[in-house]
# Entry
Amino acid sequence: MTSASAPGKIILFGEHAVVYGRPALAVPVEQVRATATVTAADHPGIRLRSAATGDDLRLATAPLDHPLAAIVRATLGELEITQDPALEITINSQLPMGAGLGSGAAVSLAIVRALAQHLGSPLSAERQSALAFEVEKLHHGTPSGIDNTVIAYGQPVRYVGGQPVERLAVGRPFRLLIADTGIPSSTGQAVAGVRQRWQADPVSYEALFDTIGGLVDQAAEAIAAGQIERIGSLMDANQQALVAMGVSHPRLEQLIAAARDSGAAGAKLSGAGAGGNMIALVDDRTASAVQTGLRQAGALGILSTEVGR
Ligand code: MEV
# Structure
């Protein structure tokens, strides 16, 4: 039996604009993980089961575009295995789906890791990420590749599509609360919505992407220099640009306002938006009041994560 897992992720800065070649910053969230377990089976071929989605499939008959089957096929292809081994793969995930925490990419990476390890050929983070990216396209249409990258490398990253991954330097650890609106968000739909609006008004949208790209560069500097207050103001500015881009949601804005009113140094949506999660920058002084403020404003789940610790 072989088990492997992969963490969740949050985007700190630059979501959506990253799909258009601008940089973005993301960090893994180690508290929530997807796990895949591979065991030898007494039936021929591969059976795939996921407690989170209720899936129970045979690889041989699963649709080509089924994400679980696709990542298994991609991994077997990478390992040049042409005959399906007799295996059972079970997936368990602590990551809520449609919440902006990268559940699809985390599940893909847990499967790649467990399967490659079980078959005696562990893969590099770069190869793992490339395989998961193929499946991200099935999940999300035209993803940037940031989710699979930050999860595969398991470290804070500055990401630009098609460029080598850069580690994001963190001068001073900082703490974020991640709060769930409880409104499921589809990354594919949110990305497609931005694409439609960009096609209808490319000049305004290119300007918004440039604004966000500039904020991301300033945020990378502030994070490297440990300038926590500045990180907070940049989060607020990024949120304004996301609102202008049409990817926020009244529930996100309620939680963001509640976080700021109860002492957060900055707050924004994280990931695709239109629901899902928001993040709030806190410290030891403000964390508990912000947590209470978020809860009173109706946040469903609240996680706390320390970036750079
Ligand atoms: C999703 O975590 C981030 C988006 O920018 C989509 C992507 O980059 O693929 C919304």
Q: What stands out?
A: Residues 121 and 144 are 27 Å apart (CA to CA). The longest strand covers residues 24-40. Residues 2-166 form a domain with the Ribosomal Protein S5; domain 2 fold (CATH 3.30.230.10). The chain is about 40% helix and 25% strand.
